[in-house]
Amino acid sequence: MCILIGDVLKGVRKCSGLTQSEFAKEINVSQSYISKLEKNEISPNVELLDLYAKFFDVEPELFLKFRNLKDKDSLATKIRIALFKKLIYNTDNTDE
Known about the structure:
Largest sheet: none
Radius of gyration: 12 Å
CATH topology: 434 Repressor (Amino-terminal Domain)
CATH architecture: Orthogonal Bundle
Helix content: 55-70%
Strand content: under 5%
Order of helices and strands: HHHHHH
């Protein structure tokens, strides 16, 4: 199984402790839109990726960086590490 961008978007949202509904309200979109993104039924556009990045205070490239992982457990770990490093060290370096 390959990780798709919706999996990454979902992982970042969940690691931040937000429900789909809460996050949708925060960025002014519908919960069903978030659901479709996270299920990979639709693809995000550049503007939406930028909106996610600004909301979570990360670089937009973070959402593309993890697409080559093979399983969702690795994805969740990598996202947690990336968000932790951003919070603690104010860095986006997730290569370590």
